[in-house]
Prior knowledge:
single chain; mainly alpha; Rhomboid-like fold; 0% strand; globular
Amino acid sequence: MEKRWIAWAWGVSLVxxxxxxxxxxxxxxxxxxxxxxxxxxxxxQAELMDAxxxxxxxxxxxQNHPSRLLFTALMIAVVGGAVAERTSVGAMxxxxxxxxxxxxxxxxxxxxxxxxxALPGMAVLADxxxxxxxNVRFGAAQSLMALSGAAMVIFVRxxxxxxxxxxxxLGSVAFDLFQGTQGAAQLGGLFGFCVAALLLATGGVTxxxxxRTASRR
Length: 217
């Protein structure tokens, strides 16, 4: 349980940043935050990435829809905490932040998810506006996809967290489809899936209530 605090702190920090940005913009907390405004707070834009690569990190703490913010923050806390318990805090942070950076970079330069990085069985529609220089990219959806992908490798379907991770991934894709914000976010899921598979193969996953035991039930 002691390893889960960092994931919950991560989720809470997303909400704190949302509040601070809203106060800075002098707008209600539940009002949508505009893309062009978020660029000034560290969002990603293709033409700025070479000179300002740090945006791949800061953009992960920005969101423009309050509903997606709350969903993503809660799911990162729950799924990320479970991944940290079974691997390590460092591995969980690497998977989440690394997947977030991969997804944001792909979206900014114009790679479409197209289902490539989605969790198994997910069909994803491409965002037709991806890659336009004026398109601003941000959000922790890619981090959530990475953590969900990792959890679906580490855990099995007999464990509730597997289904929670699936819900997190599907929910993130649904937000993409209906809000049309991050066309390549699913590439973060592929990153998490691959890193977790490597950890599992190299013994980097603990065996308390482990995958092998659960799979025998």
